[in-house]
């Protein structure tokens, strides 16, 4: 009787306890992973900037800049300055320095897509350009210009000349007159550039210009270069006609043409006399 009951009792399938243990381990691992994710998310929500409070409100200058941005920039750079493919790049991280340079020099807003955006009469005032810069700065951060308008008085002209000849003269020429580059591009003249515009160009590297960060040219180095460039504009030509200060090429060409013309007239005069 007992043997019959024992034989009729169902026995667990081989490996069933191992399978149930494996399932429990997997469930426990999943629960631990979920708890860890919840804990990490809670910590991030607490310590992340603006995580619980949302985005910080814009300053009055940035609010005014946003109104200008929505009016003239949004179609090319997007609602959140993220850029629009085929129209304009992202402005996140470019900083107020780049915005001020492009807007104050009239390069932006751009009239059309071309090899290089040239300087033209600006659409906005300097104050409006700085409001636009404040909006982009608060939106995504980036390089900023030092306070003030007069940087040249803080620099050393002689040392600035050395730095300029090493870093700038190959494109802008020794006198800051600019020069041609490849593919229809060019280095513009520095004649109309202000202290802040020169500093912003060195700091942000617009278009074909390399970026000279503070690890390459310190703020004092930039002040020195600005002092030299601005001194060039007031420095007289003691030798006479400067020929645009483009260097020995124009000087040699002028001497050659004047000399050839003088020789031709001299030859004709001699021939006529003889």
Automatic annotation (TrEMBL):
Residues 1-23 are annotated as: Disordered. Residues 60-140, 155-233 form the Cytochrome c domain. One of its GO terms (molecular function) is heme binding. It is an enzyme of class 7 (translocase). Coiled coil: none annotated. Binds 2 heme c groups covalently per subunit. Gene3D superfamilies: Cytochrome c-like domain (1.10.760.10). Its EC number is 7.1.1.8. The keyword Transmembrane applies. It catalyses: a quinol + 2 Fe(III)-[cytochrome c](out) = a quinone + 2 Fe(II)-[cytochrome c](out) + 2 H(+)(out). It is a multi-pass membrane protein. PROSITE patterns: CYTC. The keyword Aminoacyl-tRNA synthetase does not apply. Signal peptide: none annotated. The cytochrome bc1 complex is composed of a cytochrome b (QcrB), the Rieske iron-sulfur protein (QcrA) and a diheme cytochrome c (QcrC) subunit. This is Cytochrome bc1 complex cytochrome c subunit. It comes from Catellatospora bangladeshensis.
